[in-house]
Amino acid sequence: MAYQETKNISYGTRVSNSAKGIGTGFMLLLAATIMLWWNEGRAVKTTKMLNEAEKVTVHVEDISELDPSLNGKLIHATAFTHTDDSLSDATFGIGAVAIKLEREVQYYQWVEYKKTETKDKIGGGQEEVTTYTYKQEWVGAPVDSREFKDPAYQQSNFIVMNLEDKCYVADNVTFGAYRLPKNLIYAIPGNIPVELNFSEEQMNRWNSDVKTTFESMAASQSDSTATPDASCYVHVNGNVLYFGKRPNSPQIGDMSITFKKALPGETSVIAEVNGDRLKSFVAKNGKEFSALTIGESSAEEMYQSEHTINKNITWILRIAGLLLVILGLKGIFSILTTLLKVLPFLANIVELGVNLVCGVLGLVWSLLIIALAWLFYRPLIAIVLLAIITALIFFLVKKGKSKKMAEEAALEKPTAID
Questions:
Q1: Cα-flanking dihedrals φ and ψ of residue 185, to 5°?
Q2: Based on the domain organization, do 33 and 93 belong to the same domain?
Q3: Pick from 231, 279, 349, 369: most CB atoms within 10 A?
Q4: Long-range contacts of range 141-149, CB-CB < 8 Å, 24 or more positions apart?
Q5: Cα(36)–Cα(42) distance, rounded to whole angstroms?
């Protein structure tokens, strides 16, 4: 059952909060403006860096041996990655000769959700009703149920042990005859399951500890579903270690730990040669670049992928900036509607107008900042675009005048009399 809290906010408090919101709105508008400007600069610099790198990239067919003539050059090649490093997770005694070893932890917990609804009152006051609901879900970190609003769910969560996700990476990974830098090693995805084999002694020890935890929680809870009904609390299925009674029917407190690794394999790399190592290419504008993909990919495909990523990030940040600008403007002008809340129906009409104005102003402001950033970062392109826009406006105005003159001439022409 949902739990509700009702709060009554006076008219004076609402006006005071809206007045404070003006300052917050200006700060949000400033932050969004800076972000929009920075994003355009980031996009331009990244594009220039990629174009510069692509022009000097040299494809190398075979890098099985060191080639002194490649030193200092930005190369593209496809070869096998290799390592002899042994990685281990000391907490569980799991090890493997691999490029990367990853541990992903999930907890089955109660999660609190809240939804707030408001209702304006005659006189400017407001009734605020917050509804709290609770769901059992798999989450990546323990949830502190002591902070839950509903007393019935407080102290409802517990965990067997508190662990974080971990990623162990080999120090020495070769790509043909060259050594890969750390950033490219981290770029290799770890998606191969690690087969788990634990001793019977270890399984019994874990089972005893976990069983004690579950039984202790069951004794402190009145919920009958928490009563232990199984003797085995530790399960292994492929690369998953599960703490709980029934993996197919999880209960609060259950814990799932998944182990994956990255093994040597064919990869395609773009990086600069530095002796027997590879490193990131540094463009004239100071931006660094190196790339790695699994399998065989041409340099053209890899650069196209990087350009696509850059464009996607640019548009995501543009939209985010636009929304923040609108949110900031609404914070600035919200006091207008708050002052009119003494008559809710009138305030609602004004609020629609304020939202519309903020939306239009937000769009205009965002486009203006983006245009100014283009003038700063891409002056030649911006000038060409402005020239095209000016010519288009001139053409439309001239066409409009010509059409008007033709209509006036048609009206002034005498009508023939039969």
A1: -65, -45
A2: no
A3: 369
A4: 141/107, 142/107, 142/109, 143/107, 143/109, 143/110, 143/111, 143/112, 145/109, 145/110, 147/112, 148/110, 148/112, 149/3, 149/5, 149/112, 149/114
A5: 10
The residue from 297, 325, 358 where one domain ends is 297
Q: Looking at the structure, do residues 22 and 139 belong to the same domain, yes or no?
A: no
Q: How many CB atoms lie within 10 A of CB 391?
A: 10
Q: pLDDT per residue over 35-90, tens digit each?
A: 999 999 999 999 999 999 999 999 999 999 999 999 999 999 999 999 999 999 99
pLDDT in tens, 335-383: 888 887 777 777 778 888 888 889 888 988 888 888 888 888 877 766 7
Do 74 and 208 lie in one domain? The reply is yes
Matching residue, tokens 């965002």: 366
How many other C-beta atoms are found inside a 10 Å radius of the C-beta of residue 414?
A: 5
- The answer to whether 170 and 85 are in contact (CB under 8 A) is yes
For residue 259, give its domain range. Answer: 58-110+135-297
Burial class (CB in 10 A: 0-12, 13-18, 19+), 8: exposed
Strand residue runs (E) in 68-171: 74-82, 86-89, 94-97, 100-120, 126-139, 166-169
Extract the tokens encoding 154. Answer: 């407080």
CA-wise closest residue to 337 among 359, 356, 354, 358: 354
Sign for the CA dihedral angle at 260, 265, 270, 274 comes to positive
- Distance separating alpha carbons of residues 108 and 250, to the nearest angstrom: 7
